């Protein structure tokens, strides 16, 4: 109860300058510990998070409680999804299902078109899904496509990540846009239509076009993960593997379940029980991914002629390689929670309220500031939408829809060390801190700025 009350109490006891200075110092300490002292990111994030809490005025026990709350919350959501996704990805690789999907993509798309194909794949998968789920589902495909095609890893990864992230920030039914739509009273259909219009050029710029530069800035090798029989030199025709439709169905199953839940939430938001109740259950991220693993055991295991021992070994061997990823992502979530509990979001809200800039630009700026300070796109969206609610009541419907998109664009800006997604991408792709800033962080900035430009241009014609 005490931790939950901190955001309301701290602004009265701690100066705004102290909060901002503490946060900036915390960012600097974490980066120095990792890049100069070569400290493990988990340890650096833990030290940085607790240090920021204490410097900002939290009592020692409250700082520890806030860290534990953030770590536990992240592990209970993202951590579970990473674990299930790793199991599914390893099973997809060991059964030959990943080979089947990758060979089909590589055979039917020229090397020049592969980045565009992967951007489309990322956008489709990302439409109904949280970014983290889409990432763990597609990571085996990203790595295998890069390995088989011979293209630089970033030429494949960046377009896929652009599709996932742009959909997450701009297009309902993701939680952020839906919260903003509800808070601001925007029209869902209009926001969805505008979101797709803005997302398409945004994905193109931040994905296939930017991937060439990213490949030059971060020429990292393809990670030694999801190694398949074909990668080990075996003849792909020598062993059985699932058919392309079966493998694709397993990958798309959580997408279908979550999309079905999202559609029913839009069509019948107040309905209870029956089909709606069932879809609400199976369409939640954890259950959808769990069902994908179960179906994968049956379908992929049968298609790859895997016996019970082989399936058990595949699932068991999937978890040790991600232990470090889980700890780092959890610590990133803990750092974010400490920043939120210090009340820095309230400082930013007071700072921007009453400024004279345009409504759409103001919504974007508020979301950017909260995102950079707290590392949470959802917190940025909720805070910005709350601040802009009185203004939105005076706007016409098209401009309210565009305000939702401006806030969504700002909510993905400048992912850095206080964002669990930053560490998730870094660990999966094997980049160092500077390379992650030059690729993933730059990608998020491009999505944010291109989204804002698209919103402002649409505002001129609607």
UniProtKB/TrEMBL annotation:
It comes from Microlunatus phosphovorus (strain ATCC 700054 / DSM 10555 / JCM 9379 / NBRC 101784 / NCIMB 13414 / VKM Ac-1990 / NM-1). It is a multi-pass membrane protein. This is Putative gluconate permease. The chain crosses the membrane at residues 19-36, 42-59, 113-146, 191-215, 244-263, 283-303, 315-335, 347-370, 377-395, 401-425, 437-461. It holds the Pfam family GntP_permease. InterPro entries: Glcn_transporter (IPR003474). GO terms for molecular function: gluconate transmembrane transporter activity. It is found in: Cell membrane. Its main location: membrane. Belongs to the GntP permease family. The keyword Amino-acid biosynthesis does not apply. NCBIfam families: gntP. GO terms for cellular component: plasma membrane. Keywords: Cell membrane, Membrane, Transmembrane, Transmembrane helix, Transport. It comes from the Bacteria. Coiled coil: none annotated.
């Amino acid at each position: 109860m005490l931790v939950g009350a901190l955001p309301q109490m701290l602004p009265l006891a701690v100066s705004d300058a102290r909060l901002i200075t503490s946060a900036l110092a915390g960012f600097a300490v974490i980066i120095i510990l990792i890049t100069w002292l070569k400290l493990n990111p988990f340890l650096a994030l833990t030290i940085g998070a607790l240090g920021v809490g204490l410097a900002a005025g939290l009592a020692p026990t409250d700082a520890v409680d806030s860290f534990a709350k953030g770590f536990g919350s992240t592990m209970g959501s993202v951590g579970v999804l990473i674990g299930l996704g790793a199991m599914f990805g390893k099973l997809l690789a060991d059964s030959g299902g990943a080979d089947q999907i990758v060979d089909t993509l590589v055979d039917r798309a020229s090397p020049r078109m592969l980045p565009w194909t992967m951007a489309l794949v990322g956008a489709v998968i990302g439409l109904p899904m949280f970014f983290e789920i889409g990432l763990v589902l597609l990571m085996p495909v990203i790595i295998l496509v890069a390995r088989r095609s011979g293209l630089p890893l970033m030429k494949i990864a960046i377009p896929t990540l652009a599709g996932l992230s742009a959909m997450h920030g701009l297009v309902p039914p993701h939680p952020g846009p839906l919260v903003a739509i509800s808070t601001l009273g925007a029209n869902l259909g209009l926001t969805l239509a505008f979101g797709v219009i803005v997302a398409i050029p945004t994905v193109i710029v931040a994905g296939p076009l930017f991937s060439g530069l990213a490949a030059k800035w971060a020429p990292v090798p393809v990670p030694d993960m999801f190694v398949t029989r074909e990668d080990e030199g075996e003849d792909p025709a020598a062993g059985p593997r699932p058919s392309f439709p079966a493998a694709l169905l397993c990958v798309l199953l959580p997408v279908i379940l979550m999309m079905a839940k999202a559609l029913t939430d839009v069509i019948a938001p107040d309905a209870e029980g029956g089909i709606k109740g069932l879809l609400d259950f199976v369409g939640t991220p954890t259950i959808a991914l769990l069902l994908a693993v179960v179906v994968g055991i049956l379908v992929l295991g049968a298609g790859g002629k895997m016996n019970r021992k082989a399936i058990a070994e595949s699932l068991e061997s999937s978890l040790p390689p991600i232990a470090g990823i889980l700890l780092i992502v959890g610590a990133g979530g803990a750092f974010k929670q400490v920043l939120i509990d210090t009340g820095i979001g309230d400082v930013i809200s007071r700072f921007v309220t009453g400024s004279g800039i345009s409504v759409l630009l103001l919504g974007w700026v508020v979301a950017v500031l909260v995102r950079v300070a707290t590392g949470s796109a959802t917190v940025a969206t909720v805070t910005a939408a709350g601040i802009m609610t009185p203004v939105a009541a005076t706007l016409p419907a098209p401009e309210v829809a565009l305000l939702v998109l401006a806030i969504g664009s700002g909510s993905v800006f400048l992912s850095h060390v206080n964002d669990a997604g930053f560490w998730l991408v870094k660990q999966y792709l094997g980049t160092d801190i500077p390379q992650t800033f030059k690729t993933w962080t730059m990608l998020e900035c491009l999505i944010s700025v291109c989204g804002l430009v698209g919103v402002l241009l649409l505002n001129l014609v609607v």
